[in-house]
Amino acid sequence: FPDHHFLAEEIIHDNETKGYRWIIDPLDGTTNYIHQYPTFSVSIALQEEGKTILGVIYDPVKEELFTAITSCGSYLNKKPINVSKRTNLKESLIITGFPFRKKDIIDDYLKLFKNLFLKVSDIRRDGSAALDLAYVACGRCDGFFELNLSPWDIAAGSILIKEAGGVVTDFNGNNKFLLTGNIIAGNKNIHQKILKEVKSIFKEDI
Q1: What is the distance between the terminal CA atoms of the chain, rounded to a whole angstrom?
Q2: Helix 151-163 vs helix 129-137: angle between axes, to the nearest 10 degrees?
Q3: 105-159 per-position pLDDT tens digit
């Protein structure tokens, strides 16, 4: 693809959004991989004129391939998937990640974590944002939030969730999560409830 652009951790200088752009993370969950903790993935997204139109996340440990194309739905190993239908936070399993790149906000993050922890069924932290989003897309988890991520962490997962019937926004409820790196995802009901909790702590852009 000689006319296509690429954005990855190793090619962060290519910020061109015109035409086609691939957003790639060849190993999401590097620390897990180094420590032989079996949660890591390959994440690939394709954008057309700045809009994500395709997403692929592959888990080589479980041999699970998550795929999504705009207006074509989301799939796990070629079988259709959907976000969960839970509406009650008390019954929900939420997944998140710690802001290891932005440790100066850890106190506020822990306040948010505590607030949600007291209201949900449980919270997981697995260390691969791409897989976290894939698990929301297929209904294994009901919602996800994290701060200060990179586009290659979340681009593929975001279209997976949208095509699976879910909602993805930044911390203000807008569509700028690829720019801010702050993301909330889930089914419509759980997303709104997480967003409310996030706004109670983070009242301005981070």
Answers
A1: 36
A2: 0
A3: 899 999 999 999 999 999 999 999 999 999 999 999 999 999 999 999 999 999 9
Write the pLDDT tens digit of every residue in 31-78.
Answer: 999 999 999 999 999 999 999 999 999 999 999 999 999 999 999 999
Count Cβ atoms within 10 A of the Cβ of residue 15 and give its class: 0-12 exposed, 13-18 middle, 19 or more buried.
Answer: exposed
The count of residues in the chain is 206
Q: Which amino acid is at 167?
A: V
The torsion angle over the Cα atoms of residues 167, 44, 92 and 35, rounded to 10 degrees, is: -150
Task: Give the domains, in start order, of the chain with CATH numbers.
Answer: 5-81 (3.30.540.10), 89-201 (3.40.190.80)
